[in-house]
Amino acid sequence: MNNESNVTPTALDVAIVGAGFSGLYLLDRLRDLGFTVRIFEGGSDLGGIWHWNCYPGARVDSTVGYYQLALKNLWVNWDWEEKFPGWQEMRRYFDHIDEKLGLRKDIEFDAWVRSAKYDEDKKMWLVKTSGKSKGEISTYAKFLIICSGHCSKPYIPNYQDLGEFGGVLCHTARWPQNGLSLKKKRIGILGTGASGIQVAQEAAKEARHLTVFQRTPAMCLPMRQKTLDKEANKRLRRTFPKALEERALNFGGVDKDMVFIPQKTIEASEKERLANYERLWSLGGFYFWLANYEDMLSDEKANECAYAFWRGKVRERVSNPATAEVLAPLKPPHPFGTKRVPLEQSYYDIFNQDNVDLVDIKKYPIESFSKSGVRVDGKTFRLDILVLATGFDALTGCITTMNLENGNGVTIQEKWEDGVSTYQGICSSGFPNLFFSYGPQSPTAFSNGPTQAECQGEYLVKCLEYLRRRGIQRIEAVKSAEEQWCKACEELANDTLFPLADSWYMGANIPGKTKEMLCYTGGLPAYLRVLEESNQSGYADYCLE
Ligand code: FAD
Fold first, then answer.
1. Is 113 in the pocket of ligand 1 (CB under 6 A)?
2. 399 lines ligand 1 (CB under 6 A)
3. For 205-230, what is the HEC assignment?
4. pLDDT tier at 6 (50, 70, 90 boundaries)?
5. Which of 172, 250, 281, 450 could be a cystine partner for 55, CB 3.0 to 4.6 Å?
6. How far is it, in rounded angstroms, from Cα 40 to Cα 108?
């Protein structure tokens, strides 16, 4: 592919943005097939979110056997230490991947993609990067694959006087790589999503004082962490590779046992329902969320039953009734499970400790930030460190800030100004030879990361091989097909309770962002059938030149 006359000798077949699961999978597969490929990664090492999210307690919430690549039997000589590994273990795992596959040599680190422009004459993307220690690098590539993940762009709320704070201010996803000690410090945590919960549990162990500023109560489920010894790993390995293969048949790309109960909540007697709830609760992990009654995420009454059970469990753990009411209010702020469900190990217990406070900033909004701390309801909370666990401009944020411009001078942020628009979560019409992996309008946040990285990655590999075989230089999705896909995504989401929450799934955590479901909610198997049809049809909904 690299020897067309109008192409500079250094032009790549494929440029990939991002060295997480998605980018690494594609790099290895495409390189094996003889494509010239290079990853451009803004961070200083591989691992994607596991490079950035090195805050105390950062941990995987998917069960470990499933949260890994099946590629080239990488699991054969790898032992997992914990059922839900922490960031340090994930980094060792990425080193293991690199040791086996030798990926680092084809990755340009400290290389943020600042812009990419499609050149219609050359039929190439001109990708420009820069980093802290590097000047601008320009590279031509025939295809550009965006593997920038769904949570690469941290979100910091726009408080006018946040800069007044005189202590250490740190977003969880930009935690210092050489660490930041919480010991004996006065810590504040702003935000109670999955990251906020994880830091709070660790901070409570060693902080002089911890204040959790809660806007919306997190509906956490018990993690039920376990350490895994040699024997446990042997047993686990016996289930591979079948279990890894079967992930693609599961709604969330995980364990085949994690399936919704094929029954409506009210069809079960109260006794039967409570027994099922208790069973799911004791299994831990995402079971209570993703293996509950089939209508839990689509029927308000069914959802209320699940919420009532969850609330009872939480209140048993918190000794102060007023604190318990803030953590698990009688009236849910949104339906259960319509925001990303965090897993916890000691989150609810920490509020029984003398060194931990909970502040309800929904009821008493933050008044101001000052040199010494945060002022709420007339009281200043003096802090040494303020942790911003305020999440991400998820799914689209890192794509729209990349300045992707098509041959007509239109940028993707202009195209998506009023809402995201992709064809099958794989590409966007008007932007030829550009693909996404683990991006918007595909299962993404509802799918186990590595499973989708492999499944979607494989679709792209097949597609690029097909184009190469036929000498096709340009591929672009048909606009009307894209419109249908957007409509299908919207209709699927409207059959669920997800639109009732102001979640990042819905883009609603970012002021001014269009509120819309940003992921495909039909589940991974249905999505993969769509991709398979596209492969089989010879990319019928694309213009190929
Ligand atoms: P990422 O891992 O996000 O990697 C994207 C890479 O792209 C990053 O390294 C980033 O630096 C780089 N990048 C972005 N923009 C640019 C640019 N302009 N130029 C250059 N480089 C760029 N998913 C699960 O399934 N289970 C879990 O338990 C789970 N836990 C999570 C915990 C945390 C704290 C977070 C933040 C996410 C979690 N996720 C989880 C989601 C996670 O994103 C996926 O599991 C997985 O990491 C996706 O891999 P990826 O390669 O697609 O993206």
1. yes
2. no
3. HHCCEEEEEECCCCCCEECCCCECCH
4. very low
5. 172
6. 5
Q: How confident is the model at residue 5 (pLDDT cuts 50, 70, 90)?
A: very low
Q: What are φ and ψ of residue 360, in 5° steps?
A: -90, 95
Give residue 62 CA to ligand 1 midpoint distance, Å. Answer: 14
Provide the β-strand partners of residue 344: 222
Task: Name 332's Cβ contacts closer than 8 Å, sequence gap at least 6.
Answer: 219, 304, 307, 311
pLDDT, one tens digit per residue, over 518-528 is: 999 999 999 99
Phi-psi region of 137 (alpha: psi -120 to 50; beta: other; left: phi over 0): beta
289 touches 252 (CB < 8 A): no
User: Which pLDDT tens digit goes with each residue over 258-290?
Assistant: 999 999 999 999 999 999 999 999 999 999 999
For ligand 1, say whether the CB of 43 is within 6 Å of any of its atoms: yes
Task: Please tell me the distance from the alpha carbon of residue 203 to that of residue 373, in angstroms, as a whole number.
Answer: 17
Q: State if residue 145 touches ligand 1 by the CB under 6 angstroms criterion.
A: no
The yes or no reply on domain 10-153+393-544 and CATH 3.40.50.300 is no
Among 67, 139, 148, residue to substitute to test ligand 1 (most atoms within 8 Å of Cβ): 148
Q: Is 386 helix (H, G, I), strand (E, B) or coil?
A: strand
**So where are the chain's domains?**
10-153+393-544
Contact indicator for 17, 145 with CB cutoff of 8 Å: yes
